Amino acid sequence: MNNxxxxxxxxxxxxxxxxxxxxxxxxxxxxxxxxxxxxxxxxKSTLLRCINQLEKPSDGxxxxxxxxxxxxxxxxxxxxxxxxxxxFQNFNLFPNMTVMENLKLAPMRVKKMxxxxxxxxxxxxxxxxxxxxxxxxxxNSLSGGQKQRVAIARALAMSPxxxxxxxxxxxxxxxxxxxxxxxxxxxADENMTMLVVTHEMGFAKKVxxxxxxxxxxxxxxxxxxxxxxxxxxEDRTKEFIGKIIGD
Length: 247
What we know:
The protein is an alpha/beta fold and 247 residues long. It has helices at residues 44-51, 74-80, 99-109, 115-128, 144-156, 174-189, 201-207, 225-230, 235-245; strands at residues 4-15, 18-29, 33-37, 59-64, 67-68, 84-87, 162-166, 193-197, 210-215, 218-223. Strand 1 (4-15) and strand 2 form a beta hairpin. The longest helix is centred in the C-terminal third of the chain and has 16 residues, at 174-189.
């Protein structure tokens, strides 16, 4: 098996008295695609945010290449931020900047690239997501699907080792979902390590190496997609799959 890139050991997250993550354990290996599914409020997005330290876990270890992120300084974490790309459901593009300016910002600020170098890399990834012709457009002129593809290109421009997707299609009109999932599928085919919180069960079935089913603050079941969807073992998983697939 490929090298382990992320390890979660007894990760917990509380908001005052509300325990959102109760005891999360798991491993992610290089080149793996893991889809995290489960009902709303089960802690899926919180888990992603705790792994990349947008939220501080209340307890437990988050290891990235064997370094415990929970013990790192802000300076060490900002360096690490270059290695984890994050795509949110609401795009988070700067509306006052062109598409290319959005893509160049982090490489120039964080990696100290020249404008010319950052533009070259930006164009490479805009081309990669099929939007080279939108380099000088502003985000508000784009469709939701195009904005999300720009957001993916922006994350890729930092050459991350892992890509996190937090429900990347949930804010999109149905006809735009496919264009974003196609880009994600191509990334998976190129062996990009990916953690994807998603409601797109067809994508999880086709693309994931492993599916993690989360509910009630725990990962209730982990398995290959065929087993999770066709032969779930845990009662909570059976109940969820029964609801989404129907009788």
